[in-house]
Amino acid sequence: MNKALRKAVIAGNWKMNKNRAEAKALIAEMTPLVKDAGCEAVICVPYTNLETALEATRGTNIHVGAENCHWAASGAFTGEISAPMLAEMGVEYVIIGHSERRQYFGETDATVNKRMRAALDAGLRVILCVGELLDQRESGITQEIVSMQTKVALGGVTEEELKRVIIAYEPVWAIGTGKTATAEQANEVNHGIRTVVEELYGKKAADGLTIQYGGSMNAANAEELTAQPDVDGGLIGGASLKAPDFAAIVRAASR
Ligand code: 13P
C-alpha cells in the first residue's frame, strides 16, 4: 500500500453552473469549512467565474481550475480558450477529457492528447478524465477502454510532466445519476489505471500518481470510496455546488 506516497485531491467540477454572484457566495461559504483540509481542495469553474474564483480564493488553501482548454496557444478558434490564457490568469488546474466533452462536443482520445500537451506546455496541472459507458461495462471491456484512454492521453508526456497530471476515473453511468460505483469497482479500475501507468513510466511514477474517483460521490459515500488503497480523492460534480457537502467530502478524504 503506497497511499502515503501521493496526495489526495478533492476537486469540484462546477460544470455549467453558478453566475458570478453565486460563485462568490459559494466560495465565501466554503472557505472556512475547508481551511483545515488534510487533502488538496480544488474548484474547477466555468471560464466566466475564473477571475472571481481566483480573487475569492486568494490567501486560502483552495486551488482554482478550468473545465477545458483548447490545444492551440492562440488562433482562429472562435469561442475557445487556450491553456496559456488560463496560465496567465493564475489558473492552476484544468480538466481534460471529461465524458461530457466526449459525449456532447466530439472530444476524442486524440484531441484529449492534444489538449493535454497544450496544458502541460503552459505549466498547468491536468485532471485527465477517463471512464467507460454502461454498455462497455456490461460487455466486460471496462479495463480495456480505460487503459486505451489513458495510454492515448498520455502519449508524449514525460515522467517529469506526469507529476502535474491527476487521473480521474469517472464511469459515465455513474455521473449525475446517483448511481455510484461500489468502492470495490472504483478501486479495481483505479488499480488497473495505476498498472498501465507503471508499465509506461515505472513503479515510482505510478506510486506517486493521484488517481481520483468521480461519479455521484457525495458526503455519505466519500469516506468509503476514498479509503480504498487506489482511490486518492475525487472529482465531484453535483455535491461540489453545496459548501457543506463539498466540505464533508474534503474532510472524508483528509488523512
Ligand atoms: P456528479 O458528481 O454530479 O455525478 O458528477 C461527476 C462528474 O462528472 C465530475 O466531473
Helical residues, percent = 40-55%
Structural class: alpha/beta
Helix/strand order, N-terminal first: EHEHEHEHHEHHHEHHEHEH
Largest sheet: 8 strands, parallel, barrel
Shape: globular
Each distinct ligand: 1,3-dihydroxyacetonephosphate
Tell me which oligomeric state these chains represent: single chain
Mean pLDDT: 97
**How many β-strand runs?**
8
Can you summarize this structure?
By secondary structure, this protein is α/β, with parallel strands linked by helices. The protein has helices at 20-34, 50-57, 83-89, 99-104, 109-121, 134-138, 142-153, 159-162, 183-201, 203-208, 222-226, 243-253, and strands at residues 9-13, 40-44, 62-66, 93-96, 125-130, 165-169, 211-214, 233-236.
What does this structure look like?
It contains twelve helices and eight strands. With 255 residues, the chain is an alpha/beta fold. Helix 2 links the parallel strand 2 (40-44) and strand 3 (62-66). Helix 1 runs parallel beside helix 2, helix 1 packs parallel to helix 12 and helix 7 crosses helix 9 (183-201). The longest helix is centred in the last third of the chain and has 19 residues, at 183-201. The two termini are 15 Å apart. Bound molecules: 1,3-dihydroxyacetonephosphate. 1,3-dihydroxyacetonephosphate is lined by residues 13, 98, 170, 175-176, 214-217, 235-239.
Topology diagram in text:
Elements: E1 9-13, H1 20-34, E2 40-44, H2 50-57, E3 62-66, H3 83-89, E4 93-96, H4 99-104, H5 109-121, E5 125-130, H6 134-138, H7 142-153, H8 159-162, E6 165-169, H9 183-201, H10 203-208, E7 211-214, H11 222-226, E8 233-236, H12 243-253
Parallel strand pairs: 1-2, 1-8, 2-3, 3-4, 4-5, 5-6, 6-7, 7-8
Helix pairs in contact: 1-2, 1-12, 5-7, 7-9
1,3-dihydroxyacetonephosphate binds next to strand 8.
